[in-house]
Amino acid sequence: MTAANPLSTLLSTAFTKFDLNKDGKLDASEFSSFYEILKPGIAVDKGGNPTISEQDYFARMDHNGDGGVTRDEMLSTGVLMPADMTNNGSVEALLAFLQKQVTSSAARAAALLAADDPTPRA
């Protein structure tokens, strides 16, 4: 069995925390917070704005178009992040990045990542 790479581990952990209703999918509202952790890997234009919108990224990940992004859909979509944020598969570096942002969506994402998840997941 091959060990999961650090980025997959990090994204899977985040996915579990952002799936607030625990239905195994991120709906558009849940994805809004998840998008914040994807931003470090998204190219930006000359003005510093992401070159792919939240809605377009959601559509790219929602392979079957059912209005929800599953863990498998998320993991099978090419996601890039700086190595210093994913080198050990933990959320600490990602949490530090989010806490430096000045948007309410980044603050919400940081709160979700920092929260303990009492729901056991297999």
Automatic annotation (TrEMBL):
Question: For the EF-hand domain, which residue ranges apply?
Answer: 6-41
The record's InterPro entries line, in alphabetical order, gives:
EF-hand-dom_pair (IPR011992), EF_Hand_1_Ca_BS (IPR018247), EF_hand_dom (IPR002048)
Name the domain of life this protein comes from: Bacteria
Looking at the UniProt entry, the stretches that span the membrane are: none
Quote any Pfam family the record assigns: EF-hand_7
Family matches, as CDD domains: EFh
Molecular functions per Gene Ontology: calcium ion binding
Annotated protein name in UniProt: EF-hand domain-containing protein
